[in-house]
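#onboarding

Welcome to the new folks! Below is a worked example of what a typical request in this channel looks like: someone posts a single protein sequence, and someone else replies with the predicted structure as tokens. Don't worry about understanding the tokens yet, we'll cover that in week two.

Example request:
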Amino acid sequence: MRGVKRVVAVFAVLIVALVVLAFVLENQQGVSLSFLGQATGELPVSVFVVVALIVGMLVGPLLGIVVGRRDRVSVAERRS
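Example response:
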């Protein structure tokens, strides 16, 4: 059973990698983002989207850890 899960996981990662590669290759036009008067240099659209994806993948679990710890502390306080 573990072997099947590993094959499915590898297949899923390969599909995601191919989709990301296709996205990067199709979005090579340069853009510049500006926010609160600050502007970035001109980079491909795919760079901004991939960076946003990576930041979201890092921030999401970190927020989950913080909320989980807070919930465990409140449960422990209720028990005492």
